[in-house]
User: Fold this.
Amino acid sequence: MPLSLTTDIILKSVGKRVKNSSDETLGEIIEVTRNASGSRIEYAILKSDEIIDKQKRFFAIPVSSTLMKITESGEIVLFTNKDELQSVNGIRCDQCPSPNFHVKPPIFELFEYQGPQV
Assistant:
């Protein structure tokens, strides 16, 4: 049974491996980002070297129940596959729009990502 994507659950996803519904490993959540006011988590940042030739790539995954679930055992499942991740639009980190959670928000590949902001 999937858990509700509450702030506490999402924050506990940092450092966890991520798979898709076909049980393929996609990478690891390394950070979550908030909106400008800091009041809402918008994206989980996925680090993946599982997509193309073990090259390290970063993806902004909107924290939406239409895109991900977290199981009671803490597993993170994304409703996407490696081919879909390989073909998402790229964007600079500072240009990620606020996701529209009323529709299936897009995943972005992040260019010039410098790692978790402390």
Notes: The radius of gyration is 13 Å. The beta strands are 2-3, 17-20, 25-34, 41-48, 57-62, 68-71, 76-78, 90-92, 108-111. Helices lie at 7-11, 82-86.
